[in-house]
Amino acid sequence: MSAGSIPSGKVRDPGYPTKSENYLTNSKGILSWMFTLDHKRIGVMYLVGVVVAFAVAGLLALLIRLHLFQPDGAIFKGSDANNTYNQVFTLHGAIMVFLFIIPSIPAALGNFLVPVMLGAKDVAFPRLNLCSFYLWVAGAIFFVSALCASGLDTGWTFYTPYSTSSNSSVILATSGAFILGFSSIFTGLNFIVTINTMRPPGMSWFRMPLFLWATYATSIIQVLATPVLGITLLLLIAERAMHIGIFDPEFNGDPVTFQHFFWFYSHPAVYIMILPAFGIISDLISVHSHKRIFGYRFIAYSSIAIALLGFLVWGHHMFTSGMGPLTTIIFSALTFTVSVPSAIKVFNWLATMYKGSISLTTPMCFAIAFIFLFTIGGLTGLHLGTLATDLHLHDTYFVVAHFHYVMVGGTLVAFLGGVFHWWPKMFGKMYSEWGGRLAAVIIFFGFNLTFLPQFVLGSRGMPRRYATYDPEFAYLHQMSTIGSLLLGVGLLVALVVLIHSLFRGKRAPANPWGGATLEWNCTSPPPFYNFERAPVVGDPYDFTTIEWDSENERYVTVDPEREIAPEEKPETEPAHAQGDH
Ligand code: HEM
Ligand SMILES: [Cu+2]
Questions:
Q1: Which of the listed residues 51, 59, 92 should we mutate to test ligand 1's pocket, taking the one with most ligand atoms within 8 A of CB?
Q2: 122-176 pLDDT, tens digit each
Q3: Which domains does the chain have, with CATH numbers?
Q4: Ligand nearest 407 Cα, by number?
């Protein structure tokens, strides 16, 4: 890769889309969005939806943290204070899991990216795709109505027997989660068929971008595991409504059976949440290190291994449920095996960065933060997968810190990295690089200040889901609360930087970062038809033909052999790519 001006006759650059081509402006009016079958528009609608869901659940999280600033509770007062607290953390968790994190990367970014990464015009089933979006909206409406009715106080896990007797809106909320399950299944189904049947000539499985491998593995779990959650919630609704005697001992049911059913889905579900993040990080690390990914096949296989092994470990959530010693040993051993394919990924990302020419762009800042935070999240999972330590740490703040390191430090940070990476492609605008990096730094420190103290709280015995606590824990909780405010500021800065770019950002070139996957071969934003003809499929991690064109401040693909026909020459309008080179 060399810098400097390139003879224009040898570059391949699609230039800029016209207004009538641009997928954002080719058809006008709200109805053109509401009834769109364009995967890109559906992706954007999901992006707006999950960001709103995150904002709501994020505000609930801040309420939790502010309340815990004082040992006897700073926010919720009076006789109903504890019940209000139960409602707030339950809705925080349930909205974050079902409405934000599960659809965040697959449905928002995946919907936009999968067809363009394949050089295809759309997903296999565009109508099913739009239907999955409206199922998400319907699920959200059920959750909002539960919130407005008598709330929800069972914890996001809906454990019986409390959830069969609680006065809160369990049936509304579980119906919402049931509907959301179908949105997730349809998304997964669409991606499996699209990746199986719509790869362009020359794109064999091992020439696919790793984001597609991760999306494929995630889709397998979405299709196989989500129906288990569906039937579990239906049985819970039946137990509440008709006392059929399956989960509630009062009706000869068994609450531990509920836990098995629930976690048989919810543990694989954590891989629906983290696998797509792995896919983003593999692409970001390679592109922003301008170096071929290390151990492509190992990373691809490890995604599938995680998806399959993830079905065998759900029992580690139930070590204190009275399970027999042999069962706990088997689940503990299997839990350790899952850490191997995850560790392979972390090792390969670091090996990719080693001797790479790293551009410390905003997406790369998030990718590096991800590796640090996810590693802490992953390693603390081993403490909880070990029977001896889990008996002490179960249901304490150590567990809360662990899954937030994986879900926030991992998935949310990767989601942000992906949004900043593909934002120029999605909206055709560059954002302020220093603003983006600033957001990444504040988020990194705010996050660690929020959740690191919680590991200490948990190891010293602070139980989760308590609205008040022993004063000895006060200074750790106060650090955590201050951290969550800082984290909130960082997230706000990220939002402002992105929205500002829509109004004031410079026009984005087709390939602002020097990526070699197909989405960088179409214009920014893409035309509604994505590609006029099937694009030339190359090696997704071969950067030898990608050159920095300093004259126009953009990356271009240089075809060493072929002369470019005059009509393929791009518009010579100057590119506006930012970032350090
Ligand atoms: C962004 C900042 C966030 C903060 C400050 C935060 C804070 C918290 C706190 C303090 C609790 C514990 C409440 C308790 O046990 O008493 C909690 C619970 C939880 N959080 Fe978060 N959280 C955040 C983001 C997320 C995200 C992105 C997810 C996505 C999966 C998530 C999922 C959960 C879940 C599932 C629970 C358990 C709720 C329950 O016990 O039923 N949180 N959160
Ligand atoms: Cu688990």
A1: 92
A2: 999 999 999 999 999 999 999 989 888 889 999 999 999 999 999 999 999 999 9
A3: 2-561 (1.20.210.10)
A4: 1
